[in-house]
Predict the structure of Succinylglutamate desuccinylase.
Amino acid sequence: MAGDRTPASAALPALLPEPVRALAQADFGAVAQRFSAAGFAVAQPADGVLTIKGSGERPALLISVGVHGDETGPIEMVAYLLDALSREAGKLAVNLMLCVGNIGAIRAGKRFIDADLNRMFRTERGTLAGTAEATRADQLIAATTDFFGDAGPERWHLDLHTAIRPSVYPTFAIVPELIAEQPRRTLIAWLGAAGIGAVIMNPASVGTYSYYSAEHHGAAGTTVELGRIGTLGQNDLAQFADASQALDDLLRGATNSGAGRQPHIFNTARQIIKLSDQFRMAFGKETHNFTAMQQGQEIARDGDTVYTVQHPEELVVFPNPDVRVGLRAGLMVVRVA
Ligand SMILES: O=C(O)CCC(=O)N[C@@H](CCC(=O)O)C(=O)O
Ligand SMILES: [Zn+2]
């Protein structure tokens, strides 16, 4: 699915609250000024990237939003959190990198302009090379490398998204399996505290930002899905209250207020890759995330290749036949805890 070009006139919705307007436009001015005045080292190493570093060894926390331009809830949530924190800047307990991913797509209210930015965090880009987002991915990779390059051992990357379609679990996360055991436990405990209902363990990269940070920088990286896509300024942030609190706790080095809650854990049974334009799914693309399918049921067919459910039960996540050839068109998962 190729996006079309952003018209020069593309604009954010009118009358946005100021913190939301500023973050959505990657205008860090007021927030940066407050942290700087409080003695932090503040820099903007690339468009849409802000780093705030304090003294002494601190956890390194990368928060990214808007990697998909129409996933606006997390932009609002982070905008309010950061605005409030910057007014008592001395409370920041981590070295922070804040990244507003696809600025043009946010302005246009689209998932992407040319191609999916969240498939480009790898060297082999195939037909995605040469797109507007490939250049952006290079900028983000460079900034991320610098940020984690001088970080201590505690490294986090929370890449905040929203899902396209409804979900049995309104909030869920994808966690790379390669994260070492201790940071992975800490990350999953944090996700539980954040009210995340399900965690999918992912064994292989499809070029996502959080997998990149985990694989190349030893970060406890995760993609977090917070509700569904919506119009900037019109999201119901009450549904993210636990996630917002847990993120605020992390930023302030506070005790995890939601500690003790555990998400359900799912393993990946299979990533369904679209091999050709003949790819057809056996069900509608509005099928809810985590819909259960039984052994032997057809998932999709792609020319002569037929995908069927292998385990007694598998659940489908992110079914999307409209992706480009070569990209993930869905994920089959199995519940393990
Ligand atoms: O709802 C959908 O179909 C997509 C939502 C979304 O953007 N999800 C991320 C997940 C990334 C990961 O697997 O870590 C994506 O597809 O990029
Ligand atoms: Zn997304």
Notes: The first helix runs from residue 18 to 24.
